[in-house]
Design goal:
By secondary structure, the chain is α/β, with parallel strands linked by helices. It has a single domain (2-160), classed as Metallo-dependent phosphatases (Purple Acid Phosphatase, chain A, domain 2). It is built from 4 helices and 10 strands; from the N terminus they run E-H-E-H-E-H-E-E-H-E-E-E-E-E. The chain has helices at 16-25, 41-49, 62-67, 93-101, and strands spanning 2-6, 31-34, 53-54, 71-76, 79-84, 108-110, 118-122, 125-129, 143-150, 153-160.
């Protein structure tokens, strides 16, 4: 099973690059997750039409906060995926997120917020941040991710978004 992952798109309206990410770069994914900072309900609705599962982030409009939760546990490939955006300083972010979701016993936690790609373990739980999907003033940007679940193993990788 392949899971496409994006975060921190920070868009007011759907655009060509968002569609390219979902329809081309993450094509062939069995599921696509968005770890928040979508920004407007127009973008969320566009993503939901494509089957994307999302959580809200700290920069999202109130409409998004009412439409999607702050955290989710998603079942995929026999594994439990925790999905959250994140909050506060980049320093200690993984520890805070781990503390928030560890009681839910996820096999991997997908998050965003820092705009910095990360794949590693924190206290024995895989943590994956695809970075920021689109380039902007607060991000090197241009990365998304893919998680593969095969024979009970979880592997993840960062994918560049070429513009």
């Amino acid at each position: 099973m392949r899971i496409g992952v994006l975060s921190d798109t920070h868009l007011r309206n759907p655009d060509f690059w968002l569609d390219r990410i979902v329809d081309v770069i993450l094509a062939g994914s069995d599921m696509i997750l968005h770890a928040g900072d979508i920004v407007t309900i127009r973008v969320l609705e566009h993503l939901q039409e494509k089957g994307v599962i999302a959580v809200c982030g700290n920069m999202d409009d109130y409409d998004i906060m009412e439409a999607v939760p702050q955290t989710r546990i998603v079942a995929a490939g026999g594994k439990r995926i925790g999905l959250i955006h994140g909050w506060g300083s980049k320093q200690g972010l993984e520890e805070r997120i781990h503390a928030r979701l560890a009681p839910e016993q996820p096999d991997i936690i997908v998050y965003g917020h820092s705009h910095k790609p990360f794949w590693g373990k924190v206290h024995g739980i895989g943590m994956f941040n695809p970075g920021s999907a689109l380039r902007g003033p607060y991000s090197d940007g241009g990365t998304v991710g893919a998680i593969d679940i095969l024979d009970g193993r979880i592997e993840a990788k960062i994918l560049a978004v070429d513009k």
